[in-house]
Write a structure and sequence with these properties.
A hairpin with a 5-residue loop joins β3 and β4. This protein has six helices and six strands; from the N terminus they run αββαβββαβααα. It has helices at residues 3-70, 120-129, 189-205, 216-220, 226-230, 232-266; strands spanning 85-87, 107-110, 145-147, 153-155, 173-178, 213-215. With 267 residues, the chain is of the alpha/beta class. The protein is elongated and about 135 Å long. The protein folds into two domains: 1-71; 85-266, Lysozyme-like.
């Protein structure tokens, strides 16, 4: 074999080795590019998912803020009543809702239904049914509010109208009828708590204190509300509880006003 032939063979072998080496590198480079592409895709989708989650949290925050600002989605009362009061006003009629405007509120009068075990809805419907009573019956009765056995509160006669509940004091008082489970006339816990809350709210609205809360008994001498007439200590405790709830309402209003003032300074 001549020297030239040997040199050619060596060059050929070297070129073949380079091609083989180049062929080995190409798959490694392609695999690396695929890994990089996969990482980019994962990173893009991770960012998208995070963006969606952040947007969702922002939307939830906005919704929560709106609910906090405007309160319950329940339709606001045209009389400004709190949202725990259900408004089911009686049909205007001469026996239970005469439609006479109330000129002032000097007292809140507490009553009991005298019908053990009956619901607020049943007593409300009874008042409403008086409009259909037979001629000659002439039974007049109603109340501005009824507190039920489950603590529910129904508004029957608007707070700016006369209800037929407290005799000669109908024209300057608001009345609350209260349901009771048995003949003792004592109120269960749910009813009692709602009665305290409603009474305190009304006192706050009309700038009254607990001394302005009276019994039907104090108006006419009738044994109503039975339990509070027969147990004077229970009546005293009720008035104390109303005053405590009233003081709390006043404190909350002061805190709210203070917050508004502070916010105005920040602005």
């Amino acid at each position: 074999m001549t020297g030239n032939t040997r040199d050619k063979q060596q060059k050929k072998q070297m070129n073949s080795g380079k091609k083989a080496a180049t062929g080995d590198r190409r798959p490694a480079s392609s695999h690396k590019k695929q890994q990089q592409r996969r990482k980019r895709v994962i990173r893009v989708w991770t960012n998208r998912i995070l963006a969606i989650l952040v947007a969702g949290l922002i939307i939830l925050g906005i919704v929560w803020g709106i609910k906090s600002l405007f309160g319950s989605t329940k339709q606001l009362s045209i009389y400004g009543l709190p949202d725990y009061v259900t408004e089911e006003y009686l049909t205007i009629n001469k026996y239970s809702r005469p439609g006479i405007q109330l000129q002032e509120v000097n007292n809140i009068v507490i009553h009991y239904t005298g019908n053990p075990g009956t619901s607020a809805e049943a007593n409300r419907n009874y008042f409403n049914g008086l409009a259909e009573q037979a001629a000659g019956s002439e039974l007049y009765a109603s109340s501005n509010f009824i507190v039920g056995l489950d603590g529910e509160i129904i508004a029957c006669v608007p707070i700016d109208e006369v209800a037929y509940a407290s005799n000669h004091r109908n024209t300057d008082t608001l009345s609350i009828e209260t349901c009771h489970p048995d003949e003792t006339g004592a109120f269960n816990e749910e009813t009692y708590n709602s009665l305290v809350k409603l009474t305190a709210w009304l006192c706050n609205q009309y700038e009254l204190d607990s001394e302005a809360v009276i019994r039907h008994y104090d108006v006419s001498g009738k044994n109503c509300p039975k339990y509070f007439v027969e147990d004077t200590e229970a009546w005293a405790q009720f008035k104390a509880d109303v005053q405590a709830a009233l003081d709390l309402l006043a404190e909350e209003e002061t805190t709210t006003i203070g917050w508004k003032v502070d916010s105005s300074y920040e602005i």
